[in-house]
Each structure stands twice: as C-alpha cells, then as structure tokens.
Predict the structure.
Amino acid sequence: MITRLEISGFKTFEDFEVDLQPFAALVGPNASGKSNLFDALRFVSLLAKHDIRHAMQGLRGEPEELFRRTPEGAADRMIFAVEVLVPRRGSDAFGTEYDVPAQRLRYELELGILMGRDGMPRRVQVVREFCRPIAKSEDKARAFLRSIKINYTRVSPFIRMNEEKDAIEVRQDGRQKHGRPVTLSLKEASRTALSTITTAEFPHLYAVREALSNISFLEINPQAARLDNDRFDEPRLKPDASNLAAVLARLKEETGSQNRPDGALADIAADLASLIPSVLRLESLSDVAQRQYAYNICFTDDLSFSSRVISDGTLRLLALLTLLNDPERQGTLCFEEPENGVHEGRIPALVQFLRQSAVVSDDPEIPSFQVLIATHSPKVMACLKDHEIVAADVVSIVGPHTKKRTVRTRMRTGVQPLGDLYDPERHLVRAEIETLLQRSVDAA
C-alpha cells in the first residue's frame, strides 16, 4: 500500500508531494494532473520490474517528453519517492517464506537523461537509488494506520549510494545474510537495483518490489471484455478486462461450495443488481469441446444475454465488481472516472463499494488493498468523506530567469474550515473543489 508519493521533474510535477489514504479520490477538472499522477505510478511500477527503456515504452509520449518542460528549459532529472506499508510476512515466486521486521519503508529513485554530442537525448539511466526503513517518529501515515499493529525497526538502509557516488550498494538482509553488500555500477545503469530483486534473499526489498509491482490500472475495454477466453488465460483481471470470462470461471471454481455453487459470482451479481436493479444472476459458461469460457447475465424478466450483447456500461460495472470481489485482490488499484456508464442515482452505491473494498490489514491471510480513483464528477465528490478527497489543480509560477509563467500540478488533502492553521498550499475547503469542478463542467 502506498501512503506517500513525491515527484519532481516528471511531466507537470515539481517539488510535488501527496499523502494517500487506503481509499482516496483525486478530484479536479480536466488537465489538472490526475492522469499524470497515475502515469507516475505506472512508471514507478514498471521500473520495479523492467529496464528503463521498457518502462518508458509503457507510457504516453517519447522518453524526453516525460521530463518536465518549462520556459526555463527542460529538466534533465526526474525524482520519485514512495513510502509504502508492506505485509509482515510473505513468500516469493519460488515459495520461499520471509519475514519483514520493518514494515514502513521509503524508496527513492532519481533518473537522469544523457545527451549526445548532437544535443539529442541518448539514453535515460539511474543516477541515484535509496531505500530505508521509516522511523515511527517520522511516519506521516500513523494517523490512519493506528488501527493495526506495525513493526518498526531501526536498521541501516537496504539500498544506498557508495562513498564515491558512482555505484549502488544493496545490503543483504535475509536470514543468515551478513556478507558484503552487492555493488552495482552506475556507469550505464539501464535498470533499477530494485528490479533485480527476484527472491526472498532480500526480504525488505522484495516486499517493496511487490508493493510497487502490484499497482494495477483498470482501463476497461468493453469490446475486449465481451470475448470468450481460453482456459489457460491469465487468472487475474487484465487492465482492459479482456480475460473477464476466465476470471469469472476461476472465481466460481475457487469460491463455490455445495451450499453456494456460484460462490463469489453470487456476490458480484448482487452488487451489480444494486446498481442495475433488473439484474438477477451471473452465469459462467464452460465449453469443454472448445476449451473456452464465456458468461451470461440473467435479468428479472427471465431473459438471459450473452457478453456479446450486454451494454458497454453494464460490462464496465461487471468488470469492476469482479475485481472488487476477487479474494486474491491486493496492492493498489488505480481507476479513472468510475462514474462512466452509471446512473446518477447509483453513484453513492458505487462509491460505497469502492470504499468498502479498500482494506488495511495486519493479518497476513488478508492482503491489504488500496483504491485510488480519479474523477471530475460533482456527484462522486458529494459522496466522498473529507479525508478521502485529494483535490487536484494547477498553479502558475514565474520562472526566475525568463520571468515567464508556467504551471505545475498541486494536490491538496485535509479538507477543513478556514482558520489560523489553514495553509492554502496544503489544505482546502469543499467550496474550492466545487468551484473547480463547476468550471470544468462549464468548459465542457
């Protein structure tokens, strides 16, 4: 679970910081930086698994366009810092179990762009990388984490720079691991040190890598969600929901019982019926001959419709509710404009589903799950609690050399009344957000 994010030099971000709750809604007009924040999270997630070139290919724009541009010039550095809560215990991809004495960790990464003699960008490489435990006294997320027991341990950083600042040192912290740190040169560092951690030999770093790797983005494609699926398709829901039929089949098989043969599918259907009252039942179909899965939705008038004819809005809701009802859900879910395809009267119920699915747990058997949504809907905002709102807008700044104006993204939390301790750069009142959203509606 991500509790804090700091960004500088990436797209519209400069000296940016935001604290995140288990359920948080980025609220603001178009072009206020909500999608850019999701892009930053996507980039950090990809960098935890792949080399820099591969990670940049997964984003919108050319590599040099990802660096912040202003009338003062283009940035040649981008800096990210992520604070995470990791589970106390886990197992790696090979089944090796591990314990994590320090659950609150801070990971920092700095990338630099190297220019060629012709003045054109040559490559992007790692310039600095760092990871350390967060002390209890400095933990900014203690307010909402106080309901669970967290392990804090004062130990040396797990990733740090060497004295010459030309290499990264990765400390061995697994069981009976007390040797010299692994040294990785920064001469042509084309990937992060974190992305090289693939086993529980480095339990803290493996846990951080898992936390960042498990950032998912739901970008439902109704046409893809209609498709029948092969029996060997991915068991976890893909971003475009193209394997929805396979996921529904897995949920029925894993959660069904003699008393509840449909298992989690009955819960999905019930949730869908609260948003679309005519829904009665959800059916997972298996074609043994063709080795494929499909699904139908049954309605109260005894009509059954296959995925091929279900409306786009219904498919979008079905895919979301399938993910929220999956017992194996974990990590951080990023979902833009959840209100699309939902009747205004059903938005409160949808927001409640999203809120209830976010879980902070200290039980290793119940993985924590975080939900981040982005919206410009006044109807969605009206359903949010004060502490769930992250208000996004842009502010103008004047360059010290050119004296020209440029903009940067700002996100504020902590809705509160005006008072002596009110800081307009960090705090806000609901009236400000309503004004921003109204401008967005008027512009549309």
Remarks:
- The chain has two domains: 1-214+330-444, 219-329.
- The radius of gyration is 23 Å.
